[in-house]
Fold this sequence. Notes:
Oligomer: heterodimer
Helix content of chain A: under 10%
Strand content of chain A: 35-45%
Number of domains of chain B: 2
Number of domains of chain A: 1
Number of strands of chain B: 22
CATH topology of the largest domain in chain B: Pnp Oxidase, Chain A
Number of helices of chain B: 13
Distance between the termini of chain A: 28 Å
Bound molecules: flavin mononucleotide
Structural class of chain A: mainly beta
Largest sheet of chain B: 9 strands, antiparallel
Number of strands of chain A: 6
Number of helices of chain A: 1
Amino acid sequence: xxxxxxxxxxxxxxxxxxxxxxxxxxxxxxxxxxxxxxxxxxxxxxxxxxxxxxxxxxxxxxxxxxxxxxxxxxxxxxxxxxxxxxxxxxxxxxxxxx
Amino acid sequence: xxxxxxxxxxxxxxxxxxxxxxxxxxxxxxxxxxxxxxxxxxxxxxxxxxxxxxxxxxxxxxxxxxxxxxxxxxxxxxxxxxxxxxxxxxxxxxxxxxxxxxxxxxxxxxxxxxxxxxxxxxxxxxxxxxxxxxxxxxxxxxxxxxxxxxxxxxxxxxxxxxxxxxxxxxxxxxxxxxxxxxxxxxxxxxxxxxxxxxxxxxxxxxxxxxxxxxxxxxxxxxxxxxxxxxxxxxxxxxxxxxxxxxxxxxxxxxxxxxxxxxxxxxxxxxxxxxxxxxxxxxxxxxxxxxxxxxxxxxxxxxxxxxxxxxxxxxxxxxxxxxxxxxxxxxxxxxxxxxxxxxxxxxxxxxxxxxxxxxxxxxxxxxxxxxxxxxxxxxxxxxxxxxxxxxxxxxxxxxxxxxxxxxxxxxxxxxxxxxxxxxxxxxxxxxxxxxxxxxxxxxxxxxxxxxxxxxxxxxxxxxxxxxxxxxxxxxxxxxx
Lengths: 98, 479
Ligand SMILES: Cc1cc2nc3c(=O)[nH]c(=O)nc-3n(C[C@H](O)[C@H](O)[C@H](O)COP(=O)(O)O)c2cc1C
């Protein structure tokens, strides 16, 4: 079954297709909905047709929901945090993970 | 009589008709938030949601404990119909008292405890508050407790916290908050984690004290005792050397990590917008979760006013501002933070006005971290609590060319102010303006326009006669 996730970016143009590390929230219903995972994944702009293609909704830093979801193929799940000191920019740390 | 705990307060709200219990099942995923927001926007009651989807019966959510002036008055054990000025006066007077905490051994908050590998935050009904938030905010109306290891001073603050995973939270105590200063001064230099406890569902005054900007070194728990008129009973945490209110509904214990971070935010915030703070918070490894049987999670579905932030936190902010202005020698009479202005707009009435005083007021508001962007200064004859009078003074006495003083600053502005660009918000750059709606000091008395009102343009003898004969003229209204 296809799963749905959401990710947050400061602005949509920050997001590129291809392989990268990102925080995603699992939108499967139930008491664990919105659980966060840090994953290495392959992103594509097209809507997914393959069996491993899951739906990735994208929101901006104001919570604006982009109308067109992308496709996400999760390659690896990582511990749900990145290196950095409190109040540092998480996205800068994520880039180091690539 | 002080409230023993949140449940005692809930009973009082119910007795006065200021709380509604919702027994029908509601979804923690947006439905609780949507109902709460609509009720806030109607100035309605506190809501106790008693059946939450996916959770055991009795696991409850309380939205808006002090979201109206009536509920603030009840929290302070005043007549629910007290005026805002009376509520301010009572808070100001009681805030001077301090009652030291008491250590207790029996702690309702530890009736059920999950420790270490058993910790599962998803066993608590944290709501998805607004559609588009970064996650489920479990800490929206909390008391966040940290301790300075060198001095032993304990800080209480109210900061937002979001469930990240089953045993991790992310939060956003601002980089200029006292929690941040403690972490930066005492823990980060040694790459040490900072113990933290997040208490949810306390006596309402404990929460209000957490929103009050006390100076470092001041013990908020003693002020909470003073405001309640009885010591706050504290109990030791299960996994850290921290003391927490024993009567709390839920206590989450953990450590702020010094070297790991994760994505926090965004969240629909107190100015009434989700303006985009995200990805610059703290990560907490949760070590224990303690709670009462059938715990009640306090919630404030923040947004456009009124809500707990624009009402109760305006009170704590205003009283702190008045003290600060007095310390600076400003001839301040009253300070009012109108809920509609969400602590961005403040009214200051002064015993004597003029540009110099207006400048002094602005200097106070821009000296440290700046949360306020617009200040209206009015003369003493204007009732600062009456926005009709304030608007009249602003419209007529603030000179459009000379009556505004603007101060720009960098690195200490308000990250949530919606009119700032995303870049300004991230860099904490901003500006504040004072609107001087007082008469210039140098104007001679004979040149000052005379206010054309009943109280100011008629001799006392005429006023007296008119008041005396009011009913005989056949008039109703105020005699
Ligand atoms: C409902 C509510 C939510 C708040 N959330 C935050 C927050 O997430 N981060 C923050 O830095 N301040 C927040 N504040 C403001 C602080 O509680 C306030 O600045 C308080 O004085 C903090 O204590 P401190 O001065 O010890 O840092 C919030 C206030 C209210 C009323």
